[in-house]
Design goal:
Low-confidence stretches: 209-221
Structural class: alpha+beta
Mean pLDDT: 89
Largest sheet: 4 strands, mixed
Distance between the termini: 35 Å
Radius of gyration: 17 Å
Helix content: 40-55%
Number of strands: 4
Order of helices and strands: EHEHEEHHHHHHH
Strand order of the largest sheet: 2-1-3-4
Length: 227
């Protein structure tokens, strides 16, 4: 059994997607980031950067329980633990890892800043423009890469799991998926996977009614169903 310290954000969804795809048993432990629970001493012992998600595997292979923070590291750990969604071929393996790190270092931070400034600081025109344009550039990178393949690297992998949740809020990021047809095809394909749908359904078990607007809940739970 694994304990997943979680809130329904794109980084949280990355991990539930993997867990649902792989069938690993897990327990969700909500960390209400709107109430500052990520700053509690107990959570900081697991995630010193006070960010979700964090994972405790109580039954790792030939080892004592292990705790991991940072979503990219968690995906890599789970892929290596299960032998799933990370190719064994060295060329494909490192292409997956390149795109995983691309998401961690580029798509996630830029889309996150885009969302923050465009939704919560509308008077900061320069900041909004900067991050909207950079998000569009990153969408374009992925769109071009997907021109002749179904998934980011040959077969479905942790690279797809990492990137997909950051595209879900494309409208809030002021992006039009019709401008990125290859990305849109990939996005719709991932969205229809039963495990991805289960991962977003799992978020509904978290009591967010008192801290999120109806609009915000649509973004978190409905994974871009208007695309």
């Amino acid at each position: 059994m694994m304990d997943l310290y979680y809130w329904p954000t794109p980084n949280g969804h990355k991990i539930t997607i993997f867990l649902e795809e792989s069938g690993l048993p897990y327990k969700l432990i909500p960390v209400n980031i709107f109430k500052g629970e990520q700053f509690s001493e107990d959570f900081l012992r697991i995630s010193p950067n006070n960010r979700i998600p964090a994972l405790i595997d109580h039954h790792p292979k030939d080892s004592k329980p292990i705790s991991i923070f940072e979503s990219g590291a968690i995906l890599l750990y789970l892929a290596e633990k299960t032998g799933q969604f990370l190719p064994q071929d060295v060329h494909d393996r490192y292409e997956v890892l390149q795109w995983l790190f691309w998401q961690v270092g580029g798509l996630g931070p830029m889309a996150g800043q885009n969302h923050h400034f465009s939704q919560h600081a509308r008077d900061l025109t320069y900041a909004v423009d900067r991050y909207v344009r950079e998000t569009a550039r990153l969408y374009g990178v992925l769109n071009k890469h997907l021109a002749d393949q179904e998934f980011i690297v040959n077969e479905y992998s942790i690279a797809d799991m990492a990137c997909y949740p950051w595209i879900v809020s494309y409208e809030k990021q002021q992006q039009n998926l019709d401008d990125f047809p290859n990305l849109k095809r990939w996005f719709l394909n991932i969205r229809e996977r039963p495990a991805v749908q289960r991962a977003y359904d799992a978020a509904k078990d978290i009591n967010v009614d008192q801290v999120l607007s109806e609009e915000a809940k649509q973004i978190l739970f409905n994974q871009g169903k208007k695309a």
